[in-house]
Amino acid sequence: MQRKIIFPILTVLLLLWYCTPEASAQKKEVKILPEKIVSKFQSGVLQLTDPTSSLWLNLPANTVKLIPQDVQEPKLAQPAITSLKVRSVNNGTWIAFHIEWEDATEDFNLRADRYSDGVAVEFPLNPKQPPDHRMGSEKEPIHLLLWKASQQKAKEGTSFLALNYPNRWSDYSPYELPGSAVSPARAADIKNLLPAVALGNPIVPGTAPVVEEIYAETWNKVLVQEDQDAKGKGTWKDGRWYVVIARPLFTPDPQDAPLDGGSSYVSFACWDGVKANQGPRKMVTEGWLALEIGK
Amino acid sequence: MSHEVFNWQINRKMTYWYPEHRPRRQFAGVFDINKCIACQTCSLACKTTWTSGKGQELMFWNSVETKPWGSYPTGWDVKALSLLGPQKWGADEYVGATVFEAAPKGERVLQYQPEDMDWCNVNLGEDECSGMIEKGAYLKIPHAVWFFYLQRICNHCTYPACLAACPRGAIYKRPEDGVVLIDQKNCNGHRECMKACPYKRIFFNVVTGTSEKCIACYPSLESGKSNRCFETCIGKIRLQGWINTPEKAQEDNPVDFLVHIRKVALPLYPQFGTEPNIYYIPPKQADPVFLRQMFGPGVDKAIATYKNAKDDPELLGLLLLQGSSDRIIERFKVKDGTAIGYTAKGAEIVRVPLKEPMYVRPYKDVALDVFRHNVT
């Protein structure tokens, strides 16, 4: 008799707890969307240097919807980029994703109040059991390929210091004495004045690759990979971003998601700099999309 | 993910992103506002030591601003206070919301993003007083108009808003001394810390793409020496040490004595809820209403105690020990008209007399057969 009463009470209590924010934060949300991205096989060299090329634009595209990241604080309060057009090809060695979206402003500047546009392609490390698509979960990592407009501009030679403060002047600067060469000893000193550079922080503008390969297990465990193989290029034209992100299909790197099985899952994230999108303040797909790699 | 923690400065429990985890000992400083002349020696000592690199041109981890009008970054305090809304103190505790409790849904901390231009005017409003000086004005007490200098470094808070806000977990509080640091290897430059810090003591470096902040000169700290801004202060307004929680306060610990025993030094904007660890002896001549907003309801008593220092040998002795050595004074004693500073192990560092001895030389130097006078 007692059992008959206790069991329903416990069930109700469990259900009530399940509705609390704490419980929902612990819920593992793995969502597989009905859409499928098919990476078309194309022999020869892939077009990775001109994202506006008709070679890309003539390919059929999937429209992928994005929603604000609303799981982990800081969340994105206002929607930004709401959809992407995605195309993909592979040549049996490399796979490339062409991502296109509408963005009225080209945001690549970095300073206290400026943020960069960006886009990421993400894969589960274990395609048989994909984790939460937003940043993976404990011991269920994901592999991100992150392209940022700021990193590309820095790589192309833009100095954010000169861009933002063209008239800056230092009475004496130990690193920029006009007309004098920098000695090796002085170069070491200069490096030490920039702790992030001295420590090899992989996000330092100009040193970071245009497409960063990242390994993430949770929101707090986000590591820039040692081996950076990905390539990419972005072009902003007439209010649209055209970005190509490519990676080898087969790599020995254990932190890379395996794509040699011919299928996996893929998800996307996008940042709009003018709306101060940065880090977890991003637009994301609602879940994983199936990825079929044509042969 | 919010946890319940205790904040003794507001005398109540509050919510914080992480559980309460106090360091083994906590770095702290006491700044006597009454003695500051805004010479900016501290600012430059810090600047030349730590922020002379590229991308740090507008970065002053230590700054001295004139109140009520000065601020760096521009308007940081007005903006933070406006955002927080009315801040009410009850009889024994702060009853308003902290920056953690007032955080909107989806945020970890109540925050605002300073504009880049806000960082470009480090000494804005210097020496501007509270109001117009009328024709015929003369010095009277209390002063008709006033201003004072506010010396600012990172507060190395017990509950740092920057640490709570970092989505990468790249900010940490050292367990050995409570110093709050940004891991320059792992900072991803999201600037959530910059937005979250209500005191706006996080700076963005456009060259490295990372956020940077005061490191409490931890190499000095580790060797028992004062931080650069403490050591070089020519007004001797700064006292560096370690603070305990009120129930563990030790009377011979200089910071504990000023903060917990005499309660003459107060935290800046305790209502933010971060439990900052830089304490201020409030200025005697400024508007008490303004000061209560800045330092909480203990201001009037603190000023009364400070004014009474001449009749309080222990307090007077400790105030005289301030800035008297480049070593960290961890214990002190006042005995026979002398204040003595010690290391934690009891080794004497410095002693100063409570009254400077005065020597009067005879008007005539008999040996040289000359009169001593000032006429040249």
What features would you describe in this structure?
The complex is a heterodimer of chains A (295) and B (376). Helix content of chain A is 18%, strand content 30%. By secondary structure, chain A is α+β, with helices and mostly antiparallel strands. Chain A has two domains: 28-157 and 209-293, Immunoglobulin-like (Sandwich), CATH 2.60.40; 170-205, no CATH class. In chain A, strands 1, 2, 3, 4, 5, 6, 7, 8, 9, 10, 11, 12, 13 and 14 form a 14-stranded mixed beta sheet that branches. Chain B is an alpha+beta fold and 376 residues long. Chain B is built from ten helices and 17 strands. Chain B has helices spanning 41-50, 76-84, 161-165, 192-196, 218-222, 228-231, 254-261, 288-295, 299-307, 313-321; strands spanning 3-7, 12-16, 26-32, 63-67, 148-152, 171-173, 180-182, 202-205, 210-213, 238-243, 266-267, 278-281, 331-335, 338-342, 348-353, 364-365, 370-371. In chain B, strand 13 (331-335) and strand 14 (338-342) form a beta hairpin. The chains are: A alpha+beta (295), B alpha+beta (376). Chain A binds chain B through residues 25, 70, 72-77, 110-114, 150, 160-161, 164-165, 168, 170, 174-175, 190, 193-201, 203-205, 219-222, 276, 278-280, and chain B through 1, 52-57, 104-108, 113-116, 118-119, 165, 167-169, 184-192, 194, 203-210, 212.
Greatest interface (CB-CB under 8 A), with counts per chain: A-B, 43 and 41 residues
Helix content class of chain A:
10-25%
What characteristic shape of chain B results from the CA principal axes? globular
Q: In the CATH hierarchy, what is the class of the largest domain in chain A?
A: Mainly Beta
Write down the oligomeric state. heterodimer
Number of helices of chain A: 7
CA distance, first residue to last residue of chain A: 64 Å
Strand content of chain B: 15-25%
Q: Given the C-alpha coordinates, what overall shape of chain A results?
A: globular
How much strand content do the residues of chain A show?
Answer: 25-35%
Structural class by sheet pairing and helices of chain B = alpha+beta
Mean of residue pLDDT values of chain B? 96
The CA-CA distance between the termini of chain B, in Å, is 76 Å
Radius of gyration of CA atoms of chain A, rounded to a whole number: 22 Å
CATH architecture of the largest domain in chain A: Sandwich
Q: Label the structural class of chain A.
A: alpha+beta
How many strands, what sense, and barrel or not for the largest sheet of chain A? 14 strands, mixed
